[in-house]
Each structure stands twice: as C-alpha cells, then as structure tokens.
Amino acid sequence: MFTTLYNWQPTIEMRTEKILVTGACGQIGTELVPALRAKYGRENVIASDRHPVTEDLVRDGLYVKADVMNPVTLERVMSHGGVTQVYHLAAVLSAKGESDPRGAWDLNMQSLLNVLEAARKRKDCRVFWPSSIAVFGPSSPRAACPQQAVMEPATVYGISKLAGEQWCRYYFEKYGLDVRSLRYPGLISYSGLPGGGTTDYAVDIFHRALEKGDYNCFLKPDTCLPMLYMPDAVRATLELMDADFDRLTVRTAYNLWGMSFSPRQIAEEIRKHIPDFKMAYAPDFRQEIAVSWPTSIDDRFARRDWGWRQEFELGAMVSDMLRQLAAMKEKNTRYA
C-alpha cells in the first residue's frame, strides 16, 4: 500500500527537477541520495525503499517506504511527487542472486519494467538504471573489455542486467524515453556494508582490517577485477545524467572503469597503513563468478561522449577508505 511521505511539505512553486531514488537504502543509494540533495535541494529528492526507514534519510529529506514491485504504488509516488527523474537502484546482486535465481530475476526485471512504464506514462521523466560488468562472461575479452563485446553472462544477475539494457534501449527507441545507464564495476564504499556482490570483499576487508586486523577472502589471491571508488561512481552518475542528450551514443549502458586490482594487491596496500594486517584465502563459489568477468574495462565511449575521468587510484582509495571508516567509528563511539 502507498504510505505517507515522511516530512512531505508541498509548496506552490516547485523546482524544475523532482527526483525519486528507489533502493535508496542500498550501497549506491546511501551516497547518491546525499549528493542529489546537495545538488537539487533536499526538498526535491525523494528517497524510497521497501526496507524500514533509516534515520539519515528521514532527517535529511523526503522518504517514502514503498515497494517498486507494486506498479500502482510506484505511479502514485511519482505522480504525487511530480517526479521528473528516477534513479532506479533496487536490485539483487550477483552472489546473493545465485542463492535464489528466480527471485533475483523477478525483482531485477519486473521492478525495471515498472519504472520504465511509469516514466513512459509521465512523458517528461528521465530514468537512470545501473547495469554491471556482470553482463560480460567467459567468452568476453579478459583485458580492456570493449563497449561492444560478446556477452554471455554466467550469473542470473548478469543475465538480468543484459536483458535490462535491451529493455532500456527498447523504451528509448520505441517511446523516446530518455534512459541512461552505466555498467558499474565493483563498487567500494565506506558508507554501506557489503550487499551480496562478488566484489564485496573489497569493502568487507576494510571493516575487518580495522576491527580484527585480519581477513579471510573468498577469492584467490591473484583474482584481478575492475573496481571503482564510490565517490567516482556517484560523480559519474551525475555527470551522465547532466550530459547533453545529443552527445550520447550508447542507449544500452556505458562501460565504466576506475582501477583493477587483486585481493593480494589490496592487502599489500592496507599493510602500508596497518602493518600487522593478515590475509587468508578460502575461495568459494564466488571465485567462479569472478573469473567469468573481465580484468579491466575499456570505457573510451564514456570518456569521449561525456568526458568521464576517474580520480581515485588504488593507493588513494585505500587511504581514504581507512580514514573515513576510522572517523565514523570514532564518531559512533563518542555518541554511543
């Protein structure tokens, strides 16, 4: 059922952009929502999720508890809020999806179709939807995987992302809906806990390093994967949505890349800050998923079409992650 918008205060005169973020309590949403509120004003960004409301989202702006799988609820939220942009982030990730393939497919696909259809009906609404390097598979080029490549995804997550890209293109070509998408690599964030992705070791390792001084990795030491620090990912998302419509040549999803590293390499970088940090390895089913993905990504279309440039390399990312997490821990201890 449709629920009341927390802190909702309608005004006679609204700004041009009204933004809805679905899956706002997830890894991307927890950092994208504040960035959007800083850019457009907190009264113009509605955070939405089917999970219980989080304190930060309520305190800092509008929040609605809603299930994007319910098209009636979604359309009511969009209509009531006068929404002109939707950032649809709700999804089941790669490793978690393998435990319930049908459930992951249903959520990932049906929620996207609900958003696309609701946006189409509004006619003046733009959509952002995150794709993933999981669209690639064992037959794709391993190094510098190009924008156009063989795509034979090995997970239900990758299959749903590949299908979703085609739905985005279909709605653009059939209905003129302005849908924009990025193929995110592994995302590393200090504000959210791991969410069930194969690359999430690169988030969990920082928490373990600070709390316990060791980490047992579920990938082999030299398994190299493409990664991106969340501040770069958020900036890329905003830049893509701001890009001139006529300059965009990709209507499936743009390749995006920041850096590539292995568990061994990130452990060595962490030891520069925590010399006694210990790393062990116990590969599980996620190892098979990881080796089905490219080791690096060719994102020249994003660089050419809308000027994408990453800022964080491995060393700078590790330093900033440890600093941010230590500050958060100190703050939580102080106010506990």
SSE topology:
Layout: E1 19-22, H1 29-40, E2 45-49, H2 55-60, E3 62-65, H3 71-81, E4 85-88, H4 94-97, H5 101-122, E5 126-132, H6 156-175, E6 179-184, E7 186-188, H7 201-211, E8 214-217, E9 225-229, H8 230-242, E10 254-255, E11 259-261, H9 263-271, E12 278-281, H10 285-290, H11 300-306, H12 314-334
Helix pairs in contact: 1-8, 3-5, 5-6, 7-9
Describe the model:
- With 336 residues, this protein is of the alpha/beta class.
- The chain has a domain at 19-184: 3-Layer(aba) Sandwich (Rossmann fold), CATH 3.40.50.
- The chain is built from twelve helices and twelve strands.
- It has helices spanning 29-40, 55-60, 71-81, 94-97, 101-122, 156-175, 201-211, 230-242, 263-271, 285-290, 300-306, 314-334; strands spanning 19-22, 45-49, 62-65, 85-88, 126-132, 179-184, 186-188, 214-217, 225-229, 254-255, 259-261, 278-281.
- Strands 3-2-1-4-5-6-10 form a seven-stranded parallel beta sheet, with helices on both faces.
- The radius of gyration is 20 Å and the shape is globular.
- Residues 1-15 have low confidence and may be disordered.
